[in-house]
């Protein structure tokens, strides 16, 4: 119930205005979001690369309300490939389709995604299209497939909490698509998603096995030690090398697990979000872990 409430609150513009105007909350958000500017994101990316992790940079933003905003976000992503190359970062990018206009004008969104993916290709880089709530699921899959079919260096994300995901995973693998597997961060009804965590976890393991034996390079995105242990065990049993997949985790979460996997020789990519639109991302992180909420409330009321 608390998780649903927090996810619903993440969509409130009024709460966003209140929360983002408080200094202590902004400071708390820095645990998950290193800063508002590209420079902040790049500094964090250098630090994370120095440790030995790969990076995926995400300019925060979703559900833009005008074509100008969508074009601005796309231009920012294009510029990021130049900076990644000139600063010799080992990083790709992650983006959300509603940030580049999916809600407004799907044709514009596809054109912008194609341009970003083409730019990535010119740098031998890669674009990961994040998966948003279920109303965007099919449209995201279809658009990624179309842009990929033109030779684009693009992949997407599958959410283990959805019943449909096994079929989607099989279809995307048949299309040669690289997948990031996660549990899923949105509030979905029981008609389409497993309500019980144990079922989500079981599906995650099942999907992980399909991905690892597909012969395609995928990302296993989780902070759950049970999921990483199952992945390591399955890879070892199947003789799947550590260079055939990567683990992925979010900036600021379970850095101990990130480092221990790295020490064991696994690839670990850290997802680094930056930007001023951090509120919905931050609220989803609170929803994932009640202990975060206590810190947040204390910071709000200690102003
Ligand atoms: C790289 C990456 C990209 C992602 N992209 C997407 C996406 O495109 N679409 C989408 O729907 N979801 C995405 N997610 C979020 C994902 O769906 C989950 O909501 C999130 O990862 C929590 O699930 P978990 O696998 O870590 O397992 P859980 O069972 O939720 O957590 C396992 C343990 O990890 C730790 N943990 C988890 N979350 C937090 C947190 N917020 N703060 C502190 N500790 C925490 C806790 O110790 C917890 O016990 C992404 C996650 C990652 C790692």
Polypeptide structure, described:
Helix 12 (279-288) packs across helix 13. It contains 13 helices and eight strands. Helix content is 52%, strand content 14%. The model has no long low-confidence stretch (mean pLDDT 92). The longest helix is centred in the N-terminal third of the chain and has 20 residues, at 67-86. An eight-stranded parallel beta barrel has the order 1-2-3-4-5-6-7-8, surrounded by seven helices. It is α/β, with parallel strands linked by helices and 303 residues long. The structure holds flavin-adenine dinucleotide.
Q: Can you give keywords for this protein?
A:
binds flavin-adenine dinucleotide, eight-stranded parallel barrel, alpha/beta, globular, 13 helices, 303 residues, single chain, 14% strand
Give a quick summary of the entry.
This protein is an alpha/beta fold and 303 residues long. Helices cover 52% and strands 14% of the residues.
The structural class is alpha/beta
Give the ordered list of helices and strands: HHHHEHEHEHEHEHEHEHEHH
In helices, the fraction of residues equals 40-55%
**Poorly predicted sequence stretches spanning 5 or more consecutive residues:** none
Strand-residue fraction? Answer: 5-15%
First-last Cα distance:
27 Å
Gyration radius over CA: 18 Å
Number of helices: 13
Q: How many strands in all?
A: 8
How much is the average pLDDT? 92
Strand arrangement within the widest β-sheet reads 1-2-3-4-5-6-7-8
Characterize the main sheet: 8 strands, parallel, barrel
Overall shape: it is globular
Which ligands does the model contain, each kind named once?
A: flavin-adenine dinucleotide
